[in-house]
Automatic annotation (TrEMBL):
Residues making up the signal peptide according to the UniProt record: 1-20
Name used for this protein in its record: Autophagy-related protein 27
Lineage start: Eukaryota, Fungi, Dikarya, Basidiomycota, Agaricomycotina
Organism: Exidia glandulosa HHB12029
Alphabetical keyword list: Signal
Length: 255
């Protein structure tokens, strides 16, 4: 290699390292960027107050993209459409050809078990101390669903967390409403079954049993004998007057 190219290559190497320089720890407000044992840059958030409501549609979209990212980097760069641009060592172009955003997620140091995710505009490399970078920022109190850089451990969701209870309550409500509507149907079904299986119901439906259609023989034992026409103890009442069906004449009895 000619000696004249050595200074040029050295200069290009220095410039490339200077461009990819979002690895410097620092603090702004109550948030800090610190390095973990593996050398990765991680966010440590600290704020006693909940984040204010955010109305920036782009930042809200980026927050959702970063929280549900399958890449698992706690700090990452995105464009305004949510396309992943690179990790912390990604060089921010200067000048910016388009809007660049950086999203960070980390454990809160002032509240154990809580996490914070924030997204803001990225102006240049190592813009932690640039106050203008935080003019457009949004944050939510929740971690990512997957983390691969070791900055923190994703908390395991309990079976009885608020979301699960909400879903369970909705299921119970739906089942209760369905059972309430099915109860009249069961009663109607039971009444129809009683009508269809009764003798008169079968006659009306034309499905009478064969034995029900056979005429029954006349049973004379259902009527009192001819010699007993007065009820004992009430001589003025004829037994035949108490019978609603007219007593027919037979060989053994004549009215």
């Amino acid at each position: 290699m000619p000696k004249s190219f050595a200074p040029v290559l050295l200069a290009l190497l220095i410039i490339s390292n200077a461009l990819a320089k979002f690895t410097t720890p620092g603090c702004w407000g109550r948030n800090c960027l610190v390095q973990n044992d593996a050398g990765a840059l991680c966010l440590q958030a600290k704020n006693d107050e909940a984040p204010s409501a955010c109305s920036d549609e782009i930042l809200l979209r980026l927050l959702d993209v970063h929280v549900h990212s399958n890449i698992g980097l706690s700090i990452a760069y995105y464009d305004e459409r949510g396309h992943f641009l690179g990790p912390t060592i990604w060089p921010v172009p200067a000048p910016l050809p388009f809007a660049v955003y950086v999203c960070m997620t980390g454990r809160r140091s002032d509240d154990n078990g809580r996490y914070r995710t924030l997204c803001r505009t990225a102006l240049h490399d190592d813009d932690v101390y640039n106050a203008s970078a935080y003019d457009r920022a949004c944050a939510v109190e929740r971690p990512q669903t997957f983390v691969s850089d070791g900055c923190y451990t994703v908390p395991h969701k309990s079976l009885f967390d608020s979301n699960a209870l909400t879903v369970l309550g909705g299921i119970v409500t739906v089942v209760t409403v369905v059972c309430w509507f099915l109860k009249p149907l069961k009663l109607l079904k039971g009444g129809w079954r009683y009508f269809a299986t009764s003798r008169y119901g079968r006659r009306m439906l034309g499905v009478s049993r064969r034995e029900e259609l056979i005429p029954r023989a006349f049973d004379i034992s259902l009527y009192p004998p001819g010699t007993v026409t007065r009820r004992q103890g009430n001589a003025g009442v004829d037994v035949r007057d108490l019978v609603t069906i007219a007593q027919p004449a037979t060989a053994l009895y004549r009215p």
